[in-house]
Amino acid sequence: MDLIQIGIAAIMEIMADVGLEKFVVNLLIVLVFLKRGIKMRILAYHVQPYEEKAFVNWAKNNGIEVVLEKGLLSVDSVDKAKGFDGVTTQQVIPVKDEEIFKKLKEYGVSQISSRTAGVDMFDGLLAKNYGVAITNVPRYSPNAIAELAVSHAMQLLRNVKHINSAMRNGDFTWNKDLISREIRNCTVGIVGTGKIGLTAAKLFKGLGAKVIGYDKFINEEAKEVLEYKDTLDDLLKESDVVSLHLPLFDDTYHLINKENIKLMKDDAILVNTGRGALVNIDDVIEALESGKLFGAGIDVLECETMYVNQKVDDEKIKGTVVEKLMSMDNVVLTGHFAFFTETAVDNLVSTSLDNIKNSVETGKLQNCTNM
Predict the structure, then answer these.
(1) Which end of the chain is more exposed for a tag (fewer CB within 10 A), N or C?
(2) Residue 19 pLDDT more than 80?
(3) 331 within 8 A of 325, measured Cβ to Cβ
């Protein structure tokens, strides 16, 4: 007799001794304990060195196995998810290939927990069709983003890059072209008044600025900090500094473009720490070169997958908007660094893992974006 036949014979013998009903009850109890004894397993894709400590601490505190994988989630790497209860990733490379979601469903993985707030890199509808939830981290550290937005605006107002360029050429004179504006004499327009936008508004107001805002969805808390404008156009016309804090949707794609840049003040500053495609960057560059815009603080670009979190040589960015923006003294460009603080990274990792843990343990999704 093979092992299966021996096992069946043993079960039949037990059933004869204790009766079918009692056997079934005992079997269910055993299954419950077996389930409790099985450790949850999570696969983390595209883990960066700066995230490793947060992963190790969370795994230790929760008694859950988290396997760290350096590669991106892709068609080539999705097979690594087999045997796991959930996966987490952070990447700007699109995850929109049907084969990825098809394989995840086959492996019983019903959730991708993104270690980001924005999820436009995923095809949410396609994922939903295969029963794969896309969860995010909507609030990891509003201060991280808001502080960089303020920093960019202040550097532009104080002509920091212009001053540095002059100093490199030995010119330390108080040139009249370098005289600055004080933020307390400026009107700052916040476009998108959620958690991050509200935090930015509070910081700007704390520096003495008049703060106005626009959002399709009114935040009652924000009314204590800023004055809402009825339309985006109204905000653009009045603002000395415009700071963007919106997610990317079809109706926010290229929200800022040559048509409404015309409405802005001639010496206005544009700051984007939201999503790259919120602005038509070619239109912004044209406005910067013509003098229509005084300056731009850019942390995100529509083409950022070519350089974000990479070491690149000059040839890779030669002739691109990246090279152009880097060469301009009226632009402060950073490579998607707004989120990059110790607090934000820890919150991104822990919340993304909590999202998986909660859904496995309770069957309920938290921070889901597509179901």
Answers:
(1) N
(2) no
(3) yes
